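Per reviewer request, we include the raw input and output of the structure prediction for the construct analysed in the revised manuscript.
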Amino acid sequence: MRSLRAGAEPSEGPEFGKAKSQYRNYTEGKLLDRVYSTYLLMHTHQTVDFVRKKSAEYGTCSLRKMGAMEALELLDQLVDESDPDVDFPNSYHAYQTAEGIRRAHPDKDWFHLVGLLHDLGKVLALFGEPQWAVVGDTFPVGCKVQKSVVFRDSTFHDNPDTRDPRYSTEYGMYQPRCGLENVLMSWGHDEYMYRVMKFNNFALPKEAFYMVRFHSFYPWHTHGDYRHLCTEEDLRMLPWVRELNKFDLYTKQEELPDVQQLRGYYQSLIDKYCPGQLCW
């Protein structure tokens, strides 16, 4: 198990593009209507049955073949409709995140790559999936929705699982401390990219897979909910997820990186850890 304090000390975070309190504002802002509509659809349709269907559909990674850089370039076409903080293509956000990590953790090149790749699963939105099934915060299906889930009080009224007694209790269909790896998360880019990484045998440490799989699980890593489902292993991984989150969130700013200048370095990391054509 790698320690976050091995080598470079845990970072104090990136230089913020704006005040921390201005990020993830779900009560006001020019993008709020778009964001709310995305979450309303997500919270209506993300059910146990839906997640199982999508897991089976995409779990074999048989959709197409392409390299990691090609997938990243596809995100030039995607603006995340769940994000209240940015209105520019997701590919720029990937480089912003990676460069923030690179400055804070210069000795961990694998972590730089995680920053670049963490959102690549959003290519699902370019393969025909609606954004509500790709982007946004994730949450466990099959149990009671916790208070910190975004728009919880106004968006779940038409979700059939909320009226199913099997899924409406604190634990729902799970056992205490069953482990997040045994929990069905709402379907989206986190789980899909984790599946792609596993299927293609990315030569990255366990922490990398874990960070990608749970980086959008804000109710857990930021608000402390769903701890009753966690094992000690989940809690040991939590500092890594939080470390990625600092850069995933606070490097978002309108000043965009020079992608052409950075591309060579990140291609070298792709060649080192996940080279060639990948199955998606």
